[in-house]
Amino acid sequence: AQTVTQSQPEMSVQEAETVTLSCTYDTSESDYYLFWYKQPPSRQMILVIRQEAYKQQNATENRFSVNFQKAAKSFSLKISDSQLGDAAMYFCAYLGSGGSNYKLTFGKGTLLTVNP
Amino acid sequence: GAVVSQHPSWVICKSGTSVKIECRSLDFQATTMFWYRQFPKQSLMLMATSNEGSKATYEQGVEKDKFLINHASLTLSTLTVTSAHPEDSSFYICSALGTSADTQYFGPGTRLTVL
Fold first, then answer.
1. Alpha-carbon dihedral sign for residues A40, A44, A46, A52
2. Residue A99: is its pLDDT beyond 60?
3. What are the tens digits of pLDDT across the range A13-66?
4. For chain A: N or C, fewer Cβ within 10 A?
5. Cα-based angle B26, A95, A106 (whole degrees, multiple of 5)
6. What residues of chain A have any CB closer than 8 angstroms to a CB in chain B?
7. To the nearest whole angstrom, how far is the Cα of B82 from the nearest Cα of chain A?
8. B86 CB-near residues (< 8 Å, 6+ apart)
């Protein structure tokens, strides 16, 4: 079974600085998808960024970018120019491409605090 | 695009009563929806996969007779918590599988409190 590990239960960053959240996963599949979701205090899950494993290019969405290392099974999220609104719980998630019935496997989350 | 709504956003009920939670995909059709439960400061726990026009698939340990799921249309799935008890109090979140079938979009969640 696939597993997703987020080794940082909590992180903090100063406003306008850059922070990197770590995520590693374990899988025997060669084709899959990886996601970062953000859950602010409102508890609405928001898709931050999505990466297809077959793409070598790292996904970016404005201030959010990933460092996808397929061989190392690592998928870290970099937040640049951190803003107060970035404070949230961040979940890394994995979706297999075959036989997974589209079910996501989530990590335990990293709580990000942004200090003014 | 890809907006999912949930209703109600919060509900308080007495022990022994049943509660229905609705999950709607507002701007896309979703043949597959998911129901999660989330305890405070924890990750999401998948309860079941809801497929339009067929029976839901429940995860191990989830009582299908207690958590009834109906996915009668391409835009609506419902979760009914039957004979609710205080231990059923939790935050319930639904998601809908987008048209590309590789991304889930989440509803805002429903906080259930059973007295």
1. positive
2. no
3. 999 999 999 999 999 988 999 999 999 999 999 999 999 999 989 999 999 999
4. C
5. 90
6. 33, 35, 37, 42-47, 50, 52, 91, 95, 97, 101-104, 106-109, 111
7. 24
8. B15, B114, B115
- DSSP tag of A111: E
Question: The tokens of A80 are what?
Answer: 């640049």
Q: How many CB atoms lie within 10 A of CB A87?
A: 18
A109: nearest CA partner in chain B: B43
* pLDDT grade for B52, boundaries at 50, 70 and 90: confident
Distances (CA, A) of A27 to A6, A8, B28, B91: 15, 20, 31, 29
Contact call for A44 and B108, based on CB within 8 A: yes
Considering only CB atoms, A103 lies closest to which of B49, B91, B108, namely B49
Alpha-carbon distance B109 to nearest alpha carbon in chain A (angstroms): 7
DSSP state of A86: G
Q: One-letter amino acid identity for A18? A: T
Phi and psi at residue B87, to the nearest 5°: -70, -10
With a CB cutoff of 8 Å and minimum separation 6, the contacts of A62 are: none
